[in-house]
Amino acid sequence: MSVVKKVLGLLGSEISYTLSPLMHNTAAEALGLNYCYNVFDVHSPDDLPAAVEGIRALGIMGVNVTIPYKERVVKYLDSLSAEASEVQAVNTIVNQDGHLIGHNTDIYGFSEPLKAFMSELEKENIAILGSGGAARAAIQALKNEFKPASIFIVARNEAKSKSLKEDFKRRNKSLKLKTLNIADAETVEKLRDCKLIVNATPVGSAKPSARKEDLIPAEKLWTKNHIAYDLVYNPLQTPFLKGAKEAGAKTISGLEMLVYQGAKSFELWTGKQMPIELIRNTLLKALETTL
Ligand code: NAP
User: Fold this and answer.
1) Could you say which of 5, 70, 212, 272 is catalytic?
2) 16 vs 19: CA distance, rounded Å
3) Rounded distance, CA 29 to CA 42, Å?
4) Closest atom of ligand 1 to CA, residue 205
5) Mutational pocket test of ligand 1: of 19, 156, 251, the residue with most ligand atoms within 8 Å of the beta carbon
6) pTM for this one?
7) Counting CB atoms within 10 angstroms of each CB, which of 48, 68, 143, 176 has the fewest?
8) CB of residue 89 inside a 6 A radius of ligand 1
9) Any residues with CB less than 8 A from the CB of 34 and at least 6 apart, and which?
10) Are 148 and 126 in contact (CB under 8 A)?
């Protein structure tokens, strides 16, 4: 194997907690591929255009893009896959001979762990907490693969959630999307009637600036009929999932989405299938030892 490795990485801010290097480096090593995955912490959004230009200038093969740049990065790329274009959010960039192509593997990553609950979700209401890039991917996945009655976007910034709703409604007239303010007293009642509640905010994550206490107190929210899906994966046991579990609800950890979105990115860069079981076990072990 050549000593010069092809470079992959992660563009984001405050991302020291990420498991993506462990995931991609373990997969590359297991398959004997000559890749190395690094963290590129871009502290200021003002530096994002230069960071993207650096991918081209340095011949970096590809990167993942994470919080808070998934939407902002779109305008610096040369082209977008159909899915990334539809949601206007990118979590994977492929550098094809200097041409930067944006993809969104979060849509696939979000769907895969939810497929086991497909029949339970049909004609049920679903709520998504947050209105950022991950919320966009979740709505797109729900629209593509599941048949919910309505999807509630539950966020603190009403202007942003309404514009997210309008974006989707323009392209999907029949999609039943509604917005709710997370601070409104009636919101919790609506959430209690939803089958699935997705946390698509960083609340509860190990990210230093993230709020640690729950957005909605667990005792007011959860019933045993709920399915709770936290997109946060570090820590493994978030307050959101803990509250849901204690009420007898079913839970899905963000680790599952992490593995599947990563597998799709890995395939886009290397053309190879990620060894899913090996990666899930490696990440689980890493998370359990940091708890
Ligand atoms: P983003 O684009 O920055 O959006 C974050 C959303 O969370 C925004 O709507 C933001 O509201 C809201 N938010 C942040 N802090 C909040 C608080 N204290 N109270 C209420 N709302 C709050 O980020 P993203 O890319 O969507 O990612 C969201 C989370 O999902 C992150 O933790 C990320 O790590 C996780 N994620 C996981 C995976 C996975 O593979 N498991 C994949 C994608 C994302 P404002 O707009 O008002 O700031």
Assistant:
1) 70
2) 9
3) 27
4) 32
5) 156
6) 0.94
7) 176
8) no
9) 1, 2, 4, 5, 6, 28
10) yes
Task: Provide the strand spans (E) within 88-142.
Answer: 92-96, 99-103, 126-129
Is any atom of ligand 1 closer than 6 Å to the C-beta of 243? no
Q: Is 70 a catalytic residue?
A: yes
Q: Where are the beta strands (DSSP E) in the chain?
A: 6-12, 35-41, 62-65, 79-80, 92-96, 99-103, 126-129, 151-155, 177-181, 196-199, 227-230, 250-252
| pLDDT in the model for residue 231 | 97
- Establish whether residue 233 lines the binding site of ligand 1, counting it when its CB lies within 6 angstroms of any ligand atom: yes
Residue in the block written with tokens 């978030």:
238
| CA end-to-end span of the chain | 36
At residue 241, the 3 state secondary structure works out as: helix
Q: What is the pLDDT of residues 182-191, one digit of tens each?
A: 999 999 999 9
pLDDT at 91: 97
Residue with tokens 């409104």: 184
Output the CA torsion sign for 35, 84, 43, 285. negative
